[in-house]
Design goal:
Length: 134
């Protein structure tokens, strides 16, 4: 088993616990921190629809709660036939803790579908470095 296989397994398991009764679209994410530790998250929807949270945001929360701040690899698993690429807001959230070359592996329950990078998903990103001269 490779590290990527471990990440996919963790995201898949976590996805099964997603709370998505409104969209019925369960998503799991797994982040690898610079320490090598893995952090998983699932989407958490809400009866007040805009209060729903994406799987990536949940995983970032787990990483920050553990005291880590650098993402070196990302796995996202969604259902359906398409690519479950991170939404625009989550591209920005990932960019905060990753760099342009950080891989984002977009998967289905069966495994890897396509690998992107944070930079490819969010070209011309506004990030922490933009505030250095503020
Ligand atoms: N969703 C995620 O959790 N991550 C993604 O990358 C795409 C979309 C969630 C949000 C919502 O709960 C459901 O999928 C349908 O949009």
């Amino acid at each position: 088993m490779s590290i990527l296989d471990d990440m996919i397994a963790m995201a898949r398991e976590t996805r099964e616990r997603a709370y998505a009764p409104y969209s019925n679209f369960q998503v799991g994410a797994c982040l690898r921190g610079a320490s090598g530790k893995l952090y998983a998250g699932a989407n958490v929807e809400n009866a007040a629809y805009p209060q729903g949270q994406c799987a990536e945001a949940s995983a970032i929360g787990a990483m920050i709660a553990a005291g880590e701040r650098t993402i070196v690899e990302v796995v996202v698993i969604g259902g359906g036939d398409g690519l479950c690429t991170p939404c625009g807001g989550c591209r920005q959230r990932l960019n905060e803790f990753a760099d342009a070359a950080t891989p984002v592996h977009v998967c289905g329950p069966e495994g890897l579908r396509q690998t992107f990078t944070v930079g490819a998903l969010l070209p011309g990103a506004f990030g922490p470095n933009n505030l250095d001269n503020a």
